[in-house]
C-alpha cells in the first residue's frame, strides 16, 4: 500500500464526505429487522427480500466465494476447492435446483441517480400530489393522460434464428449498420383512448410525405436534435388539446411562462419524479417495449420484401402504423394500476 508517510499525507489531503440524507442506506440493523420480521411471521422471506432490496445482485463467482467463506467461518465440513476458495459448480447446480424461484439473469443497467431517486418518499409524494389534483378537480379516468417519448430506429434488432451447428458467425439482413433515429411521442388515458402520435424527424426541411401511412390524426415536426424541445412541446400541447377536450373550469395551478397556454385551456401538467420513469412511467414500462418488438417484426418483413434495400425516412410512418395498432391494445390495465396506485 506504499510507505506510511505517503499514506498519511493522502488521508490529510482528502476531504471528509458527510451524507446529507439517509436515503438508500443499508445497515446491520435493517437486516436484523428483516430477519426478525420473517421469524415472527410478519412477512415471508420473499416479501422481506423485496422490501429490503437495494439493487445489488451477486454474480455466480461471488456466490461461490461467499458459500466457501460461510462454510469456513462456521466450520462446516466441505469438499470445496481450497486453492480457489470457492464452492464448486456442482454445488451451484444443486443450489439452483433446490431454489427454482431464484433465476440467473443479466441485469439491466441502473444508474446511481436512478437508484437514489427511486425511493419510497419520492413516489409517495408523487401519488399524494396526484390524488390531491384528482380530488380537487374531480377528474375521471377519461381526463387523465400519460405522455412519453421514445426513439425508434430503422435498423432492427435481429431475433435468434436457426442455423447449422459448427458455424462461428450467422448473419441476417438489416437495413443498414446505422439507421435513422426518429422520436415518437405517444399519449393515452386509462380507458385506452389514444391521442394520435407525434413524430420528430432529424432534418431541417419538412416533407408532407413523411406522414403518409401514419395513424389518423398524427402530427410531425422536424429539428436537428430529434428530441422534444420547448418549442415543439408547445406545439404538441396544442395537438393534445385538439383531441383531449380539456375543461376550462379546471385551470392549472402552475404559472410559469411556458405553461401559459395550458393555464388558458385547463390543462394540468404533473411530472413524474426525476430519474423514476423506468419504474413508474406507464408508457415506458408497459407500452414501448412491445411496440419496438412489433416494429422490429415490421422492419424485418419490409426489408425482406424490399430486396434488402435500406429504409428511408419516408417509409418510417407506414412501418410504424401496424406495430402501433398492435401495441395499443395492450396498455390500459397496466396504466390503470399505475395511475391509481392499486
From TrEMBL:
<dbReference type="GO" id="GO:0003677">
    <property type="term" value="F:DNA binding"/>
</dbReference>
<protein>
    <recommendedName>
        <fullName>DDE-1 domain-containing protein</fullName>
    </recommendedName>
</protein>
<dbReference type="Pfam" id="PF03184">
    <property type="entry name" value="DDE_1"/>
</dbReference>
<dbReference type="InterPro" id="IPR004875">
    <property type="entry name" value="DDE_SF_endonuclease_dom"/>
</dbReference>
<dbReference type="InterPro" id="IPR050863">
    <property type="entry name" value="CenT-Element_Derived"/>
</dbReference>
<feature type="domain" description="DDE-1">
    <location>
        <begin position="182"/>
        <end position="303"/>
    </location>
</feature>
<dbReference type="GO" id="GO:0005634">
    <property type="term" value="C:nucleus"/>
</dbReference>
